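Hi support team,

I submitted a single chain yesterday and got back a structure, but I'm not sure I'm reading the token output correctly. Could someone confirm the output below corresponds to the sequence I sent? I've pasted both exactly as they appear in my results page.

Thanks,
R.
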Amino acid sequence: MKKYNTPHRRRVIKTRLTEEEYAEFSERVTLCKMSQAEFIRQALIKSSIRPVITVSPVNDELLSAVGKLTAEYGKIGGNLNQIARCLNEYGAPYNALSQEVRAAIACMRSNLKYGKNQKREDVKSHHYIISFDPRDAADNGLSVDRAQQLGEQFCKEHFPGHQALVCTHPDGHNHSGNIHVHIVINSLRIAEVPLLPYMERPADTREGCKHRCTDAAMEYFKAEVMEMCHRENLYQIDLLNGSKNRVTEREYWAKRTGRSQSPPKSWVMILTVPTLHISGF
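Hi R., thanks for writing in. Yes, this is the structure output for that exact sequence:
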């Protein structure tokens, strides 16, 4: 008995055509010199059929809103490019601010890319301060440049994947002479990072997620600052247990300004949303 190497087809598809549709179908079948069944199979398998998308009135509103947002983002991008062009073309006084402005522009672009930090109430950055003992400069040779290096190293090790600005001041608000380092990071993480000891969730390592300043993280950072001071032969106190004569932030600003209320919102934005003040004295 002769066997044919053809697939066994059991499924049947039925449809109805108008006279005009059937006439066109028959003409195409004749031109291709195929059976009707083979023509339909070839049309189903090899042709590219685009789905029809029906847009409802609700989707019309959504598309309109998306269009407006896209236009706004385009304007923002154009403004950022103009700022960058000015920084590149002109000299002083722009050169002094160019690094800070470029960092801000990079953070804004990242936030737009991942759709983060677009609301007023969003925590857009975290501000950490490492403050050294005033005696470290004279007794242990701590300079502003060295403190800046330590701050950059601390930032690189503990905040990977975050855009950051690190700057060092030679004196504090109370003119105590203590060198201190400001570390400001974009709350958004723009790269996948390894799981660090202070991280508690898988999301803490993921690109496009945000940094969380938890109690566990605070304790870990304090211990790391103490270890850094010990390694660099700098003065330190037990940050994990605190100082006996510590004052609250409210008390500090009340004494500084002569008022009893909380600091102005402009200060709060810089110092407490959220702030980790790691002090070495």
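A quick pointer for reading it: The chain is about 45% helix and 10% strand. Let us know if anything else looks off.

Best,
Support desk
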